[in-house]
Amino acid sequence: MKTEKLEGLLIDYIDGKLSEEERIIVEKEIAENESAALLYDQLKQLMSNIDRTSTLEPTSTLKSNFEKSLQQEILNSNQGRQIFFQPMVLRIAAGFVFLIASVVILFWVNKNYEQQREIARLREEMDSTKRIMMAMMTNPQSASQRMLGVAASYQIEQPDDEIVNALLKTMDEDPNTNVRLAALEALSKFHQQAHVRTALISSLAKQKDPVVQISLIRLMIEMKEKSVIQELDRITRDKESIKAVKDEAYSGLLKLS
What we know:
mainly alpha
């Protein structure tokens, strides 16, 4: 079975979208083909990690609640002091406050420790997702795997330099137009970052694929990036540029000038 067809079937198999006949074929392929089994494990882990990367929303109000509880106990103790002046009563009240404070602090420390463990677990999952994503994005034999790798980057809110550079390289050099467009779409999410913006501007002069050129020009217009006016003017006069690209560049000149 061809790799690209198998990838599509595996993704649908993981999502539970295959017919009974297709499911049997895929399960047989996984059982008999070591490469298919490895690809299945990679896709399953990647899709699972993508689903779970947005689940962590750490909120910690326990410290605030503890402080409020402590202040309330002190207030109660002060009120008790106005009624009972006996030292023994005050010592008992102070001990009671200390006990409550100790319990709350221990609970908060334990909760904070659990949150740190959860954060560490999610970071490990993110690192695993990143490794698989990078491997798929650089797969020279499968455009569909590279596309899936790029799609995984959509889930990352704050990509590091390695991911950004991989997306830029994909946008500029990938032999498949659809993969380059997907990389451009992913990068457009991060165009507010200075180095991404600079790289996108620089890429406009390198692009030769008309579809990517048009999409990149539209992004420059959306970004209101006036620094590309000179490059747009060059494109309108470039004899090798097709009419659709020249028209888009001319439209960009009118909107950015």
